[in-house]
Amino acid sequence: MIAIDSSRISSMLAQMEGSLQRMQAKPASLLETLAQPEQASPAQDFGGVLRSHLDSVNAAQSEARDLGQRFVMGDDSVALSDVMIAGRKSSLAFQTTVQVRNRLVAAYQEIMSMPV
Hints:
Elements: H1 6-35, H2 46-72, H3 80-112
């Protein structure tokens, strides 16, 4: 018969409750952020927008990598759900960037094949 370690179960329940509390606190700030449209300046160039997007993708990947390393090293302040969410966010951001790049290349090739 396998003995159940009640301290580990209690620890996991506490971690799950902490994650739930953090998730319940985040939607308000997320909704406030989404409700306020970004004020883009009309003079902003495409290169600047692209650079800022690439910087945000890089930051998301760095955060996901950092959280994963901290979780693996046994940091109790990092929940598995946080690691998984950060990893998924960075993956989606990267996939979006790749799709934008593919569309830009296709548009460039179409323009270059037009007769002059």
